[in-house]
Input
Amino acid sequence: MADSAAPPNRPSRGSGSLTVHLADELDVYFNEVAHGRPVGFVASPKWKPRTDVWETDDELVVHMDIAGMRAEDFQVQFTDGILTVSGERRAPQPGKRHYHAMEVQVGPFERRFRLPVVVDPTTIRAAYEHGFLEIRLVKQPPRSSGAHSVRVT
Output
């Protein structure tokens, strides 16, 4: 499906970008009509579930909107200050369908977040409920406490 890929310097519609390029939208529309796909459908190798990240006094919380999965369908990894959440949402039922609209994205996904604060990796908890994946990471207190003097030589 190379015909639905975005030009190399511009993100695809499903990339989570805040900007939309008119040329990309027109290319997608004409490719969809020409190939009989429903308008609004763009096949992409990976998609990005909508995610909120917020901080409390004690925790960093990652809240991902991703219905139609099971807890065991997710992989959550934390390495070198980067939280990676990945998985794959499968189509509800196999078989040929005649779609009139197709907006629910399926297939593999991955989100990577460079965390803005230091967290304790041993305290990471993840729970999936009512279509939302929530990951809670306990913040570590700053390593330095009190004033430090440095001698200049």
About this structure: The longest strand covers residues 82-89. The chain has a mean pLDDT of 77. The domain at 49-141 is CATH 2.60.40.790 (Immunoglobulin-like). The radius of gyration is 21 Å.
